[in-house]
Structures are given as C-alpha cells and as structure tokens.
C-alpha cells in the first residue's frame, strides 16, 4: 500500500519491523530546496515563472487548464484597474476555429510553469477533461514509482551483506610494490645502431 502526503522531513527511512518505508522528495528526485529563503518560501512561489524569459511560441503548463502556447504580454483595463496579462493560446473548442485564449494576470504566475518536455506537446482545451486525465495518470505513475522504490529499498535492507576481512601482510606489500613500480624506459640507441640507421637513410634517399 502506497500513501502520498505532505510533511516536513529531511530524509526517508525504513523500519523492517513495522513493514514501513518512508521516502521523501529528495529520495525520489535527488533535489532539495537549499537556504533559509528556499525553506521559508512556498513551493509555488519558488517555481513562479519569469515572464521576461518567455518567448512567443513557448509552451507553458497551467495548473488548472494544462498545456498552452504563450503568445504575448499585454495590458488591459478592467473596472478601472490596469493590469498586465500573459496571453496563452489553447486548442480550439471546435475544429476549424481559432484557438481559445486565456488571459493570466501577472499576480497569478504561480499557477503556471514552463513546459520542459523534449517534444512539442499537444495543446489542451479550456474546460476539457484531457488535462484532468493527464494529471490522474501522472499521479498514478508517481505512486507506482514510489512502490517500486520501496520494494527495492526493502530488498536491499533484507539482503545479507558481505564483510571483507582485514588486509594481510602479503596484500599490503603487493599494493605498495604496485604503487612504487615504474614502467621501464627504453635504453638509448648504441653508436653502432645510429651509424647503421644513417647509412640506410642515405641509401634510401
């Protein structure tokens, strides 16, 4: 049984007696927020995208609406208040129609991240169920990976280890000789061989 929850713990642990294995985000991804500011700052704020780094055509992922394509940043006045918005294009609701556009205020950038996949993704539809299904599949895959890691760690803990004995005098002296041994160098040619080589060189020329 695998249970995913949020908490404050630095490292995971395994308790064979209880049949319990706890894995942290660091154990799964190898990444951990460093520094006091990173520890105090919520995860959403740490991942906030910088709109100045976006180029038209870049793919972004919205927390609620899924994958879209960044178009531009514009200013709009709504009810007397002027704000900046990121314009993100999504798949059209019907074929043959232009894509739907979502205006995201710059004070809600914590809801979007930059797409980092290798291939060009398929745009989701606003209000569609595709993004919800994608998130459900991803969550299921994470649970399966966590279950496999728990089995792996449990097997490692249960496997008998092998303790090597101390070095013997013979092995210690062998390592000492191998470290101090030098590769023999070739001796310089004798005067006779030099004369022979010169005579052959003149004959060849």
From TrEMBL:
Please name the SMART domains in this protein's record. CarD_TRCF
Locate the compositionally biased regions of type Basic residues.
192-205
Which is an annotated Pfam family here?
CarD_TRCF_RID
Region (Disordered) residue spans: 160-205
Q: Which InterPro entries does the entry link to?
A: CarD-like/TRCF_RID, CarD-like/TRCF_RID_sf, P-loop_NTPase
SUPFAM superfamilies (UniProt xref) = CarD-like
> What residues does the CarD-like/TRCF RNAP-interacting domain cover?
53-154
Can you say what this protein is called?
CarD-like/TRCF RNAP-interacting domain-containing protein
